[in-house]
Structure formats: C-alpha cells, structure tokens
Amino acid sequence: MAPITGFALQGQLQILPATAQLSTAQQRNTQLAGSRGSLQCKQFLSCRSTRQQAHLKLQRRESTTVQAVAAADQQIAKSTSTKDTWYAVVSNAEFMFNDVQNESFAEQLRERRRYFGEQNREPDFYLVPNPAWLDDKFPDKAKQVRRPSAALVSTDKVWITFMKLRLDRVLKLELGELSLEEVTKSTGPLPEFKKPDKWTAPYPPYKPGWWEVFMAGQ
Amino acid sequence: MATATVTEQELGFKTMRRGIKEAAEENVLTPRFYTTDFDEMEQMFSLDNNPNLPMEEFDAMLKEFKTDYNQTHFVRNETFKKAADSIQGPARKIFIEFLERSCTAEFSGFLLYKELGRRLKKTNPVVAEIFTLMSRDEARHAGFLNKAMSDFNLALDLGFLTKNRKYTFFKPQFIFYATYLSEKIGYWRYISIYRHLQRNPDNQLYPLFEYFENWCQDENRHGDFFSAMLKSQPQFLDDWKAKLWSRFFCLSVYVTMYLNDHQRSAFYESLGLDTTQFNRHVIIETNKTTARVFPEVPDCETPEFWEHMEKLIVLNQKLIDIGKSDAAAPLKALQKAPVLAGFAGELLALFNGKTMDCGSYDFEAEAAVVY
Known about the structure:
Pathway (chain B): Porphyrin-containing compound metabolism; chlorophyll biosynthesis
Number of strands of chain A: 5
Largest sheet of chain B: 3 strands, mixed
Shape of chain B: globular
Oligomer: heterodimer
Number of domains of chain B: 1
Largest interface: A-B, 64 and 104 residues
Structural class of chain B: mainly alpha
CATH architecture of the largest domain in chain A: 2-Layer Sandwich
Number of helices of chain A: 10
Shape of chain A: globular
Number of helices of chain B: 14
Pfam families (chain B): Rubrerythrin
Distance between the termini of chain B: 60 Å
Cofactor (chain B): Fe cation
CATH topology of the largest domain in chain A: Alpha-Beta Plaits
InterPro entries (chain A): Ycf54 (IPR019616), Ycf54-like_sf (IPR038409)
Mean pLDDT of chain B: 92
Strand order of the largest sheet of chain A: 3-4-2-5
Radius of gyration of chain A: 22 Å
Number of domains of chain A: 2
Strand content of chain B: 5-15%
Order of helices and strands of chain A: EHHHHHEHHEHEHEH
Mean pLDDT of chain A: 75
Low-confidence stretches of chain A: 5-65
Structural class of chain A: alpha+beta
Strand content of chain A: 5-15%
Strand order of the largest sheet of chain B: 1-2-4
GO molecular function (chain B): magnesium-protoporphyrin IX monomethyl ester (oxidative) cyclase activity; metal ion binding
CATH class of the largest domain in chain A: Alpha Beta
Radius of gyration of chain B: 21 Å
Low-confidence stretches of chain B: 1-6
C-alpha cells in the first residue's frame, strides 16, 4: 500500500497480536536470504561467471529431471497439433500494445514467462496479432473490435478471467477446441503505431515490438 | 558503529533504543493504519447471506495470489549496507524518511489484510484466503523496507507501532475506494521510479529500487482484487453518492501525494527525477487505471486542475512555515486561519472541477461496447 490520507473518524483499535505474525514473516525473509537466493534469482545469476551459471543450470536441470521430461512431453504433444480448449481476451491492438496504461501488460507477461521458466513449464499463453478466429468464429462480436486487433490466448481459463479483470476494456471469448496453429493464426502483421501525442512519463516508452517474443514460434 | 550512532543523532531522529527509530509524528499527511467494520464486511461477503455473490473473479484472484510470482524475489545482497553508508549529508535524512513512510504504509496493509483474512474465514473462505495472501505480500514488503532502514542503523519497532499507533476507521465502502487507490498509485509510483532508474543507472543510489519492477506487480494485483470487491458490490458503483465518494477519494489520494512529495522534492531530485513531472505522470496514469472501475474520476488533464494543485503546495508551505515560526500559539492560529480558508477553497475548486463518467465495461450494455 502507498501512503494515503484519511479525513475520517479516528478510532482506537484493539486487534491482533501482530508482533508474532510479523516476526514469522521476517524469519522467512531471513531464511530466504540465506538459503535460496543465489540459485533462483536472476539478478544474482547475472553476477556470476558464465561457467558458474552453466553449472548452476545443470544442477537445477538434474534436480528437476522429472519436470523437464514432462515439459518435453508437453512440447511433443503440442507439435503434433492436438487440440486444446483455448480462451482469449481481444481488443484493438493499439490499446493492448501501445497504451502507456498497458505497459504493465508487458511486465505481467514477462513475469509469467519467468515464472513458467522457474517451474520448467511450457508457456500456455501467446499473443496473436489480427487473430484469424475472430472473424471466422465470432462474426457478430468481431464488429465490436476496432482494427488492427490483437489477442491474448491461453489454455488457462482462470487466468484469462484474471486478465479480463485487469485489462477490463477487452472482449473475453471462449474459443473452443483449437490446435496451437489454429489459435495463433494471424491475418496479417501489425502496422507501425504512431508515437503517443502526449508523453507525461519521466522515462521513454517501451520499444515497439516488445510483444513479438510472446508470439508463437518465437 | 559508534560513528554511525553519532550520525543518526546529528540527523535529528529520536531513537527508542539503540538502532530503533521512534516513529515520525503523525499528521494529516502521514501514512495511516486502518480499521473497519468487520461485522459489516463479514455480512457483505457471507456466502450464506449472498448465495449469488459473483465468485468467478475472486477465484481467479486467489489462483493468481497462490502462484506467488515473487516468492524468491525479496532476497537482499551484500551491496545494500555499503550503498547506505555512502549516502551521507541531507540525502541520508530524506532517504530514511522515505523508507519509514514506505515501510509504515506497507505494514499498514499487512495489519488490515491480516485481520480481514482472519475475520472472513468462516463466511467466505476464498475472499479470506486472498486477504491472508495479500498480507503475506505486505509483510514481505514491510520487512524488506525495515531491513533497508537497519542499513541506515534505524529500524522501526513494528510490534510497538501495532499496539501504539492510532487507527483510522473507514466503513468497508471507503476501505474499498481508499485501498484500491492506494495500491494502484503505489504501483505507478514504484514502476515510474524503476523505469526512470533503469534508463539512468547513475542515479541508482541504493539497490532497493532494483527490486521495484517485480515488487510493484504485487501492488497492481492487490488493486485488481479491490476492483473485484467493488464490482461484487454494485451499490458502491452505481449511484450519485458512489460518484461523489469516488471523486472525493481520488482527490484526497492525489492531493496527499502531491503535497507530500513536493515537501520532499530533494529526495526525488537525488534520484534524478523532476518531482512535479513524476507526480503528474503518476496521478494521470493512476486516474486512467481507476477509470476502469470507479463510476467517476476527476479530469486530471486540464490546466485548471494543476493550477489548483500548485496553489495547494504554496498554501501548505505557508502552514508549515507558520508552524515552525517562533510566534506564540494563539498568534500562529490567527496567522493560519486565512491560509486554511484558502486551502479549503482550493480543495473545493478541485472537487467542483471537471469530471469524467467511467467504470468497468462489464456494467455497460454488451452490444454497445467497442473494444
């Protein structure tokens, strides 16, 4: 929470003995600092020599062979174009990719990609510019989406519900059973967005094209 | 160690005991601890009383919090202490103040969410667990900041604060508006500092800021949860009273930040930021985010809006100067009266300024929405 004001009633409160609970949290922080830091935190990895890094990665691989095998299986399954149930949020591409408000969208996708990497999981989400299924499968609703359009697709229904809550100004759709190829099929690349007329931030905007790493096949 | 102790005294901070800082005096602009009507909260989210309470977004939030993206993020390294030691002179004082304010604000979230998690357990286990997981995040943040304070040899005794600080009472409705805004403005503050420093690494005086990108994703998610809370209680979003309260809370939060930060512009300047530009950006973007759920927000992009905000800074400075002067108390009160009247006038002008109707697309007629 950030500091905020209150022009409201003042009241004394008699709640919880939070001292004990906080000290548990503090202990956890301390433990983390001691035991888990170097292996998992990217910032730390980047300080180490390449050889050390390779060694660490190797250790991690060995300790998670089972997960890695599972991930490899997943990949093979995907490549043979089995069908999954997909969910999506879709909107005007400029809103999704080029609005200052949604720079946090890029941060979220990077965060999720990092997390999946830590878990040795294949990503279950992709960005799709001008998704072909929009007009093909939803000719009526498609009229409500300004073009060029863009979509976030995922097999994780619950996460798409969360992303709809976050972005709000997006259309949520259940796409049904599609292969990865079908769900990521695009009717064309995005044009170059023009720079925002007004720029209030004390830093330059995100580089156009940040979204490309989240497209299938990247 | 001995030299450090001298330094802390020279900075003018009072200590409770060695290495433990006495909390800063409270005033209308300091971060607060909150309490609310827990019975009303229980009733509002009770699944027995409200079997039709929409749970889909809460379920989605719970999964997101359980994922715990930042479980291993808050790990300190050896650069902290050294960086703290190299911050000397006036910058040291404002750094400590910044850390204390941030730590108090995060800890305030911890206390409120922890208690809500405890109280809602029986009536709505999902919402209760979300609160508990958010208090986990806040405890991490507060603990991390307090460790940073101990780099400056002045940690806070949070247990003592819990028992001795005043709590501000807000009805649940107002807790929703206030915490939503405070989480979202927290996100915009942290991310703006982070992105600025990422592009200007020479201004990276202290490693804390390197943690802000992942850190503030927690703030953003907390805000989303309050968005879901508000959407589950349409009575707080759909009438003229809701609009007035929305406007009021937006302005309170924006004015508080603007005045606070301008009182401490040296801090933001030490990071290479222009306080006014930084603040205006944070307010404009927080306002746009808020428009995704509040039924009304002030229009922060008119010249008049910023004229009133600037006048508030001048008047606030006058009040501070009068307070610091050697005049007798009754004389001070006399001197303050016209300034306070002017202050109230500016606030009123902001409240009566241009506004925008807004809110979640979920409440619009579906066919009319263009995405």
